[in-house]
UniProtKB/TrEMBL annotation:
The keyword Transmembrane helix applies. InterPro entries: DUF6541. The lineage of its organism: Bacteria, Bacillati, Actinomycetota, Actinomycetes, Micrococcales. This is DUF6541 family protein. The chain crosses the membrane at residues 6-27, 34-52, 64-84, 210-230, 237-256, 262-283, 295-311, 347-370, 402-419, 426-443, 463-483, 495-519. It comes from Brachybacterium rhamnosum. The keyword Membrane applies. It comes from the Bacteria. Keywords: Membrane, Transmembrane, Transmembrane helix. Pfam families: DUF6541.
Length: 675
């Protein structure tokens, strides 16, 4: 099957995985329009995460049928609860039924709905399309293998789920532990990617890449548009701008689609706008006419909190970092209402203050419990304070050059939101995110930096993404407010229709112009040049080595074990060719017999103990990818290099310097020959 057909199948499977498990629940909640499109991936991923654990307990083989069944069951529960509530409440008067608020009304229906959908559709096409083009240019090919440390784990974990037919977090967490042991690892990414690979029948790398592109180029812009359209005072133009400007910064999602490779964190932050949307409604920061009904709000909050947290726990910490200032703004609004003498102000103030205290307590607990070790949080600063401020205002990725024109556009939008918008609450979380971004870029390594940024590994890339989460809606709402002010002022002065039309036409060009400014930024070029080796380099897997892995299924029997070294990429034969290996990942815990093979496999013909270990582990083949390894390391597993000249095996396939060997019989400690 050619690459185009395979990519199309993977794309169809990705849409199915992101839509079908949550669709029954969304329909039961009567969601529609843009809200349905934005919330559907969140609902589906939450159902997938829950069904993985349910399936594990029921010992059901992992497939899309498991989350589909749970999604239908949850929809039935919602419909039953709605019917029970309707019967208890009795029939509503006709005038109340007619005046009832529609379910999450982000877009009108009928012809008006079609016209209203043009701006979001254009925004999604521009924003998502530009992100897709930029990322594919970095990757070189949609089926490329990221040449990064973490990608070895992520691809192997997807295959691990498929081989064991079990997607539980304990199964994924136990992959790199000793046999029989389990552990926790946020597995939502691997659960979803395994379903895409299984449903499409495509290579694990291709399936994972297509899901990554969907998360960054589809789920993220949709979440931005829903946040602006539902939780702010922005109109249709702001909704379209939010989608179009979703790719304005290389800091997110592009940076996390290359650096790391931080796929679980990428997914978590791509889902974060929906959680912020729910928080804005819960805190009554959103316009009253746009608020969902209680059942919808509960579903949005629960599903988005589950999905964000189970994709990566740092996503929930990010939600607290951004949600706490939102809660404080809401408390201030309730205090103002209390001073005005509003009847419901005391109850509202008590509820909002309680939510603020809850967020603060959760943040303090999370900050202490979820903080990695000091050694794992050792990323040093990358800029001095002044330069860090300029970088953050210009939305520049880590260690890249600030760009004044983009910073000025953002500051103008911020000023417009402050002076001309009813969504000033956006400013508080943005200021907190921007402040954290400045600190993590500029603070020297030490106790203070670890205290403030340790839960994010003191990693600039992770925190920089949070600034973009608020900068996009600020730009969308602010730029629309400026356009509306210009149009209103011109109309008030009796400007002819042609002038008003020209202002409207200029508004249509705002998003492409702002994107053009961001692409002209030196930071964009620097980030792109930095991303090329992460996708198109050879430090992990060269083209010859990738080609040899493609030949393995036709040579190595399905039940055979291959001796591999994860540092030189040979262990990817597990993910890409579905063959068992001696070591999956660089930091994997392995038994003593496996460690002996890694250190002395080349001595199997002369050392009976190595021969015994080879027999005990069932190793029949070995991949020799040479001494060069990731991060410029060499010979990490000294017994795995130059095997062909050691006489322990014969070459059965070779591409360039990459060799696949079948190991020869050897004599064990008991004197017998072992095959």
């Amino acid at each position: 099957m050619d690459l185009l057909a395979g990519t199309l199948l993977a794309a169809i499977a990705t849409i199915a995985v992101l839509a079908l498990p949550g669709l029954p629940l969304a329909l039961a909640l009567r969601m529609r329009g843009l809200a349905l499109c934005a919330v559907l991936p969140v609902l589906s991923l939450a159902v997938i995460a829950l069904s993985a654990e349910v399936g594990h307990e029921l010992r059901a083989d992992w497939s899309l049928l498991v989350p589909l069944a749970l999604g239908i069951l949850l929809a039935g529960v919602v419909l039953g609860a709605r019917e029970l509530h309707r019967r208890r409440a009795g029939p509503r008067p006709r005038h109340l039924v007619a005046a009832g608020r529609p379910a999450l009304p982000l877009l009108p229906t009928g012809r008006e709905g079609l016209r209203a959908a043009l701006a979001p559709a254009a925004g999604l096409l521009l924003g998502g399309g530009s992100l897709l083009v930029l990322q594919l240019r970095r990757m070189g090919s949609v089926d490329a293998v990221s040449q990064t440390f973490d990608n070895v784990f992520h691809l192997s974990a997807v295959r691990h789920v498929m081989r064991l037919h079990d997607a539980s977090v304990g199964v994924v967490g136990g992959m790199t532990r000793l046999p029989g042991e389990s552990g926790y690892y946020p597995a939502l990414w691997h659960q979803a990617a395994s379903l895409v690979a299984q449903l499409s029948g495509q290579d694990v790398a291709l399936a994972s890449n297509v899901l990554m592109l969907a998360a960054g180029c589809l789920v993220w812009p949709l979440g931005m548009m829903a946040l602006v359209g539902s939780a702010t005072s922005g109109g249709r133009a702001a909704v379209g701008l939010a989608g179009a400007l979703a790719g304005i910064s290389g800091a997110f999602p592009l940076e996390l689609m290359s650096w790391g490779l931080l796929l679980p964190y990428l997914l978590s932050i791509a889902l974060l706008p929906t959680l912020l949307l729910g928080a804005a409604h819960l805190l009554a920061l959103s316009p009253a006419a746009r608020r969902p009904d209680p059942a919808q709000l509960a579903a949005i909050l629960i599903a988005s909190l589950l999905a964000v947290t189970l994709a990566h726990p740092q996503g929930s910490l990010a939600a607290i970092v951004l949600g706490l200032p939102m809660a404080l703004v809401a408390v201030g609004m309730r205090v103002r209402s209390l001073r005005r003498g509003d009847a419901d102000a005391p109850a509202g103030l008590a509820a909002t203050a309680g939510l603020a205290l809850l967020a603060l307590a959760a943040g303090l607990v999370g900050w202490s419990i979820a903080r990695p070790s000091r050694g794992a949080s050792s990323w040093d600063r990358t800029a001095r304070p002044g330069e860090a401020v300029r970088q953050v205002l210009s939305l520049a990725p880590n260690s890249s050059q600030a760009f004044l024109p983009l910073a000025l556009i953002l500051l103008v939008a911020v000023l417009a939101v402050a002076l001309r918008s009813r969504s000033r609450w956006l400013l508080a979380p943005w200021l907190v995110a921007a402040g954290a971004d400045v600190l993590i870029r500029s603070l020297p390594e030490g106790d203070l930096r670890y205290l403030l940024t340790g839960p994010f590994y003191s990693d600039n890339h992770r925190v920089s993404a949070l600034t973009v989460v608020l900068a996009v809606p600020l730009l969308a709402v602010g730029l629309e407010a400026i356009g509306r002010a210009l149009r209103d002022r011109a109309a008030a002065r009796g400007a002819p229709a042609s002038v008003l039309t020209a202002i409207g036409a200029l508004g249509v060009l705002v998003a492409p112009l702002v994107l053009a400014v961001s692409w002209a930024s030196p930071a964009t070029g620097q980030a792109e040049r930095g991303a090329f080796p992460q996708w198109q380099g050879r430090q992990l897997l060269s083209p010859d080595e990738r080609a040899l892995l493609a030949e393995v299924p036709g040579i190595v029997p399905p039940d055979a074990v291959v001796a591999t070294n994860p540092w030189n990429g040979s262990s990817l034969v597990y993910a890409l060719a579905d063959r068992e290996v001696t070591s999956l990942y660089m930091s994997e815990e392995v038994p003593r017999s496996t460690k002996l093979l890694h250190d002395r496999l080349d001595e199997a013909r002369h050392d009976p103990r190595v021969c015994d270990a080879m027999h005990e582990e069932g190793v029949e083949y070995a991949l020799d990818f040479g001494p060069e390894e990731l991060w410029d390391r060499r010979d990490t597993m000294s017994g795995m290099t130059d095997l062909s000249s050691s006489g322990v095996g014969v070459i059965v396939a070779q591409e360039g310097d990459a060799k696949l060997l079948r190991l020869l019989p050897c004599r064990g400690t008991d004197g017998s020959m072992r095959s």
